Amino acid sequence: LRNEDFDLLLLDVMMPVLDGIKACVKIRDFSNIPILFLTAKAEDADKIYGLASGGDDYLSKPFNPLELTARIKAMLRRNKTYNIHHTPSDGRNEITIGDLLIKRDSAQVFVDGKEVRLTPTEFSIVDLLASNRGILFSIDRLLDAVWGDVSVSRNTTMVHIRKLREKLGDDPKNPRYIKTVWGMGYKME
Predict the structure, then answer these.
(1) How confident is the model at residue 151 (pLDDT cuts 50, 70, 90)?
(2) Residue 42: what are its φ and ψ, rounded to 5°?
(3) By the 8 A CB rule, do 103 and 110 touch?
(4) How many CA atoms, within 13 angstroms, populate the side-chain half-sphere of residue 134?
(5) 3-state secondary structure of 131
(6) Could you tell me if 31 and 55 are in contact, meaning their C-beta atoms sit under 8 angstroms apart?
C-alpha cells in the first residue's frame, strides 16, 4: 500500500499473522483507501468493531456476489467523487463551520488548523451535512446519500457518526458540529 496505488482494499477479519481489524488500524495511519471487510463474523458487535476500526463497509459471508459488486462500485464511485480534484457542482470548494474547515477539492478536513484524517465514507458524511447546513438527514436519507443503499444496517451510520465526532473532537453531549435530533437524524448548523 505504501508503494503501489490501489482503488479499494478487501480485508478479512480473520487473517493469519495480522488480523483484518489490526491491519485496518495500521493502514488508517497513512491511507484513506476505501476498505471493505468480507468476513464470516456476522454479529452486530463484529460489524460495529470493523467500522469503528476504520472500515468503510462490512459484508458478512455468505454473501450474494451481486451485492459485493454493487458495494464495490458504490465505494469506488464515492472515492472517485471525493478524492479526485474537482470543482463541486455548487462551486464551493471550502466550507467553514466555526473552527472546522472542509476543503472539498482535496477531500481534507481541518479542526483548529490541524488536519483530521477521514475515511472516504466519513468525508462523504461531513461534506454532505456541511453542504446542507441546517437540513436534517434521517438515517435512511444518509444511508441512501452516502452508501447508495438504505438496506445497509442503520448501526453503520451511527458508528460512522460516533467515529467522526471522536476525530473532530466533537463532544456528543454538547456537539459543535454534528447535531443529533433525537429520533429524527443528524444535521450541521
Answers:
(1) low
(2) -115, 5
(3) yes
(4) 0
(5) helix
(6) no
* The three cell numbers locating residue 135: 437540513
Q: How far is CA 153 from CA 48, 69, 115, 160, 184, in A?
A: 10, 18, 29, 12, 16
Dig out the grid coordinates for 40 from the structure: 464470516
Using 50, 70 and 90 to split pLDDT, how confident is the model at 74? confident
3-state secondary structure of 120: helix
Torsion of CA 98, 93, 51, 26, to 10 degrees: -100
Mean pLDDT of the chain: 84
The 3-state secondary structure of 139-165 reads: HHHHHHHHHCCCCCCHHHHHHHHHHHH
Nearest to 119 by CA among 46, 189, 52: 52
Number of C-beta neighbours around residue 35 at 10 A: 27
Long-range contacts of 99-103 (CB under 8 A, 24+ apart): 100/130, 100/168, 100/176, 100/177, 102/126, 102/127, 102/130
Report the alpha-carbon distance of residue 132 to residue 178 in Å, rounded: 12
How is residue 158 written as a grid cell? 451511527
